[in-house]
Amino acid sequence: MRKYLFLTAAFLLSVFFTVAQSHTERSSAGSSELMGIYHRWKNAVTVTGNSASARNARMTTSLFYPAKATNYNWSTLNSNWNFSDTTLYTYAGPGLVSSATRKDNLDTLIARTLTSYDTSDRVIESIYQTWSAGWLNIYRDTFVFDSYNQTIRHEYQTWGGSQWNIIGGDQFQNTYNGAGKILVQVVQTWNGMASAWINSTQKTNTYNTNDQITQTIAESWNTSTLNWQNTSQTDYTYDVSNINTQTVFKIWNGSAFVNFNQTISVVWDTWTGDIATSRPQSYIFQTWNGSVWVNSQRLVNATYDSFGGSIELFHQYISGSWVNDARNSVFFDTQFNKTGARDETWNIPVGAWDTTYEYRYLYMYDANFSITESIYQQYDNGVHAYVNYTKAVYTDFLFLSVLEINPEEKISVAFYPNPMTDFSDVIILSENFNPVSFQVYDVSGKMILNEANRNKNFRLHKNKFSAGIYLLMISGAAGETAAIRFIVQ
Fold first, then answer.
1. Which of 94, 148, 203, 270 has the most CB atoms lying inside 10 A of its own CB?
2. SS3 letters for 318-329?
3. pLDDT averaged over every residue in the chain
4. Facing residues of 475 across strands?
């Protein structure tokens, strides 16, 4: 049976509906690799377009999917929407677009993207074609996965007239321990001149008895000596409860690893047992000045709502005191669709937050809570107002849903029948997910049910609900969650 992934508005907008704008949220630590370690939970819910398991956030916007989008661009000259094109969609399953075909205002074909999936609903091929009295290949991406669900090859290819030619890509050679954790990962990149895969980087990981990472040694390939050379070392510390409390990042000085920066006093909002999927509440970031650790920045407080949104407040250490530095916010609506993000910096003379970048989506929904219209806007700091960019109107909806999966936790849960008739059965298919409770919310976010439950199979009865769309949240013993949207008719 196929395990259908949750679909979100951000994926719809960026992949299906040809909204070109994108923005990657930053942490106030900028490009710091160590700070990035503590925000990798964001990467687990960020759209990449390359993996069916990397769909942004946790929810499908609806059980209905549009077969058509009409796209518009905003004219600042005339202050109105100008027609851009239409996009027609077909699906291989819920959330799995198999083709997206664009047409102009004369209904003439322009271009299309064809996407193929494997039996685990992972993207294995994406082909872009243009129309000229027939479909002409332009470029394609291909993906190969191993039995551990890790990408082991990604190729960028262009059409040479009779065959596909590789122009770039990455190849990953992984070795694993018995728990499926990566012990050594060698990354190779495609060298077009040599028509070969060339070594790039190598990482060697060490784990404790709980299969938690304790050390990573990174190396780069020396093309002159044809040997690996050390670049960095990361050491992870855990307390008696196996919760991460400190991480030290060191760099190679030519003869030894020396301190560079560290994160200490870590407090977790959600701890899953793995830093990559856990969410920090606060920590202190320090740099090494050659003899002692010096305060640099800190995450003062991070808050997370139940729909996927977050607000992170950062301080900077200046002249012996902590002062406001940055505030980063991500917003979701009650349908679990991402509605925008805002980056702010502290204006010291004024004593207030200045918006440095902000964008948002305005959604309209139908009775099935499918998005029927989306407007993308960016905040103009000069006029202190939102400016229209693109609009898409979605029509011709199809009903597609049986079985769904939480992409963040990789927890497979069956809900049948959906829509609910007299009752629906909930079956947890993941062996390692042990439930402790479940909650049901209506579309306004109001909790309808909250019950303890340690059974992997349980039943919901229709007499507890009125007609509408609901969210079932299942909590696990390790702090993980799974979520499914269901309809009561």
1. 94
2. ECCEEEEEEEEE
3. 85
4. 437, 481
| Alpha-carbon separation of residue 104 from 39, 109, 144, 359, 376 (angstroms) | 41, 7, 34, 27, 21
Q: Is 343 helix (H, G, I), strand (E, B) or coil?
A: strand
- Structure tokens belonging to residue 224: 């002159």
Q: What is the pLDDT of residue 401?
A: 53
Cis peptide preceding 280, ω within 30 of 0: no
**Calpha distance 244→269 (Å, rounded):** 12
Determine contact, residues 61/337, Cβ cutoff 8 Å: yes
Q: Is the peptide bond before 417 cis (omega within 30 degrees of 0)?
A: yes
The tokens for 78 are 């005339």
Type of residue numbered 112: R
CA 17 to chain centroid: 18
Check if the beta carbon of residue 402 is closer than 8 Å to that of residue 419: no
Is residue 18 pLDDT above 50, yes or no? no
What the block records as the tokens of 55 is 């769909």
Neighbours of 310 (CB within 10 A): 19
Whole-number pLDDT of residue 62: 55
User: What is the value of pTM for the model shown?
Assistant: 0.74
202 neighbors 219 (Cβ within 8 angstroms)? yes
The model's pLDDT over 172-204, given as tens digits with 9 standing for 90+, comes to: 999 999 999 999 999 999 999 999 999 999 999
Among residues 143, 149, 194, 153, the alpha carbon closest in space to that of 173 is found at 153
β-strand partners of 270: 279
Query: From the centroid of its chain, how far is CA 190?
Result: 26
Name the DSSP letter for residue 275: G
Chain centroid to CA 46: 2
The CA R_g of the chain, rounded to the nearest whole Å, is 24
Q: What percent of the chain has pLDDT over 90?
A: 60
Length of the chain as a residue count = 489
Give the residue among 134, 150, 142, 136 at the shortest CA–CA distance from 116. 142
More confident residue, 193 or 44: 193
Does the CA dihedral 70-84-102-388 come out positive or negative? negative
DSSP code at position 12: I
Instruction: Count Cβ atoms below 10 Å from residue 31 Cβ, excluding itself.
Output: 8
Confidence of residue 480 (pLDDT cuts 50, 70, 90): confident
Contacts of residue 185, Cβ cutoff 8 Å, sequence gap at least 6: 172, 173, 174, 175, 202, 203, 205
Q: Quote the CA–CA distance of 408 and 304 in Å, as a whole number.
A: 15
Please name the helix (run of DSSP H) or strand (run of DSSP E) that holds residue 183, with its range, or none: strand 182-191
Long-range contacts of 237-246 (CB under 8 A, 24+ apart): 238/208, 238/212, 238/214, 242/210, 242/212, 242/273, 243/268, 243/271, 244/212, 244/268, 244/271, 244/275, 244/278
Indicate the burial class of 86 (C-beta count within 10 angstroms; 0-12, 13-18, 19 or more). buried
